[in-house]
User: Which sequence fits this backbone?
């Protein structure tokens, strides 16, 4: 794992195309601590997901696609983003980012013209 990922403030979990956990950063180890934390590396994610969640993951492993949603536990709201990753153009697995969202999350609508030119200072 790259050094910057270890201390990144969001949980990062990476699995292979069969759902085996390849890597977890420190935050992911904490998030999944009750399920084994980093001891999950080398284990199947399918074993960690019951019922409908398992069926969804099985389908995503067969037909790779983005899966993004929010969850809330108590007062903590998170954005979960699961994206396929590729190696030499072939599906290799998923990267999951789990980010705690601030209570008040600003939403900005930008014009297509400004976004086509790339990021602006202060945006």
Assistant:
């Amino acid at each position: 794992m790259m050094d910057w990922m270890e201390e990144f403030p969001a949980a990062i979990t990476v699995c292979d195309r069969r759902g085996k956990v390849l890597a977890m950063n420190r935050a992911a180890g904490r998030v999944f601590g009750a399920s084994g934390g980093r001891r999950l590396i080398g284990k199947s994610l399918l074993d960690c997901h019951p019922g409908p969640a398992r069926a969804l993951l099985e389908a995503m492993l067969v037909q790779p696609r983005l899966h993004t949603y929010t969850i809330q536990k108590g007062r903590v709201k998170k954005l979960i983003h699961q994206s396929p990753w590729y190696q030499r153009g072939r599906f290799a697995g998923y990267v999951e980012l789990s980010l705690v969202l601030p209570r008040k999350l600003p939403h900005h609508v930008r014009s297509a013209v400004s976004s086509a030119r790339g990021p602006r200072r202060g945006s």
Notes: The first helix runs from residue 3 to 6. The mean pLDDT is 91. Strands lie at 11-16, 21-24, 67-73, 76-87, 90-101. The chain has four helices and five strands.
